[in-house]
Amino acid sequence: MSEYFNRKVELTIGDYSTDELRVDFSVEKSLVGIPNLAKITVYNVSVSNREQLSVAGQEVSLLAGYQDPLMIFSGKVINANPVYESPDWKVEIFARDKSAAINNSTINKSLPADTRPEQLYDELVGQMEGVTKGITDGLSDCINNKRSLLRSLQLSGGIKKFLDELAENCGFDYAVADGIIDTVKKNKAITDLPAIIINQNHGMIGSPERTEVGVNVKTLLNPGLKLGRRIEIQAVSQTINAGNLFFRKPLKPSTEGSFRIDKIIHSGSNYDNKWESQITARNYNG
Hints:
Elements: E1 8-13, E2 16-18, E3 23-30, E4 37-43, H1 47-53, E5 59-65, E6 70-85, E7 88-97, H2 101-104, E8 106-111, H3 117-126, E9 132-136, H4 140-144, E10 153-158, H5 159-170, E11 172-177, E12 180-185, E13 196-198, E14 204-210, E15 214-220, E16 230-233, E17 239-240, E18 257-269, E19 275-283
Parallel strand pairs: 9-12, 13-16, 14-17
Antiparallel strand pairs: 1-2, 1-5, 3-4, 3-18, 4-7, 5-6, 6-7, 8-10, 11-12, 14-15, 15-19, 16-18, 18-19
Helix pairs in contact: 3-5
């Protein structure tokens, strides 16, 4: 458990940065295609810095972790709310990451008949401002099968429509987090990264909860968690939250095994006790 000591938080908003003031945060990321959100609260803020932090549209980056903190959120300020809480001021910052670019971006381009799926994907990603290409596991089947367009294609309209069609045809899931778009094979996990082990000796808080499709589990904050990444749970006890599933089919008797991360909520404070990652994951068979 020694790797979970010496917690650190580094916040940058526009030209302002701090690694000393109290910072509370809650960051939510999901594979379901909605923008990833962050609420960040900075305490004991001076008058000039309150004004600076309250400007919407500024770039935000939040790093958290231990000896060398890692990025857990990158996006833009949507709203900021200065609040007087005797005897100090704090600023509540509401931010959204660049996954909104999927819904807001458009394209108007013609592609020739021999265009390959990875070329189409690159064209679509290239039109999303502030988004760069990350892991491309999900495209591997299309690439290996050497598929290409049988006829020319006119791309005109929203990026999401064409990205969804490509994902359906090639059989992948995709998500944007911290300005990077990753793809994984449908219902599969990222293969470029090893599984993260979660047990009582590796950060687990309490007991995992069995659900209809997988598991919910809480750990000490782990910035290495990533949407689509595989986790390996080793637990001696569990709770079950399966609703009416008890009446429909047998449940897997244990929360131990492999799962794919579908949702993460990082929440914590560098001056308070809360410091955790809540994971929602689905069954994974490799």
